[in-house]
Amino acid sequence: AVGIVLGVSEPRWASMRKMLDNNFLARLHSFEPGSFPEAQRERLRLLLEVPTFSDGSLSERCPAVASLATWCNHVGRFIEWESVASQLGQELVAVGHGRSSEPETEVARSHCMMGGLLVEPDLWKLPEDELAYVENLTVTREGVGSVTFQGSTDCRQLVHCLTEVVVLNPGEVVVYPNQKLKPPVGSDLNKPASITLYGCHPKTQRFPDTRAREKYKQRVRAMTEEKGAEFVDYDCDRGVWQFRVAHF
Fold it and tell me: Are residues 52 and 148 in the same domain?
């Protein structure tokens, strides 16, 4: 991913080794996202969808590489933000809006620049005093699922690192993937939450009748409880799994 960002045509190890010289950090510092070619942007987007870039596993295996992965994630978010902000600005011009671009920038960042996550309420519209007491903070990834943190949450620091703290992948939600950063139970986002996951269909099993659906639903209930969570519901036809946790 770093090779793609820095313009290496074939980012294989042999090519990357040549870049690991005394000027490597300078290249990272001087990188200008605005000059990033569209073809390279698409390649980066595809790479950043790999769970390794966001599940925290790199921090345990190789901290140096984890830092580079974080840098690539930030580049990816900036590119998404730039694209959406530009599109939004064009739409506003088309309908004759003559207002400052600052509000549109905030909308673009809050709704689209969270690595595919939608955050409700919109933290970037809240003043500092309201950020300290956000009720039922909800983080959603379209088509994947959502997690709602129950009660009041202090988001004054979380607003800067939410994508590193909450990871929503198909079939799972991970909060604090880097266990070293996890706060005590009851603090920040390590608290009771309601979770909904979509697309949780069994790979081979089919449900010919109501009895088969109910039997599989009970299997999902048992699996949920084995994980220490509270089962809420499971829709066999839609693959929607709902449960609650006391903490992460």
Answer: no
Same domain assignment for residues 71 and 134: no
**Spatial distance between the Cα atoms of 97 and 153, rounded to a whole number of angstroms:** 36
pLDDT in tens, 234-243: 999 899 999 9
Pair (33, 123) in one structural domain = no
Tally the domains of the chain: 2
Residues 162 and 85 in one domain: no
Burial of 236 (0-12, 13-18, 19+ CB in 10 A): buried
Whether the CB-CB separation of 159 and 124 falls below 8 Å is answered with yes
d(CA 153, CA 26): 39
- Model pTM? 0.56
Which of the listed residues 107, 127, 144 is the one where a domain comes to its end? 107
Average pLDDT over residues 82-101: 43
Q: Which domain holds residue 39?
A: 2-107
Last residue of a domain, one of 76, 107, 138: 107
Q: How many CA atoms lie within 13 A of 174 on its CB side?
A: 16
Distances (CA, A) of 162 to 79, 145, 216: 18, 16, 34
Buried residues in 42-65 as b, exposed as e (16+ CB within 10 A): ebbeebbeeeebbebebbeeeeee
Q: Which residue has the higher pLDDT, 244 or 47?
A: 244
Q: Are 83 and 186 members of one domain? A: no
Q: What is the pLDDT of residues 26-58, one digit of tens each?
A: 777 766 665 666 767 777 777 777 777 666 676
Which carries the bigger pLDDT value, residue 80 or residue 134?
134
Distance CA 190, CA 182 (A): 7
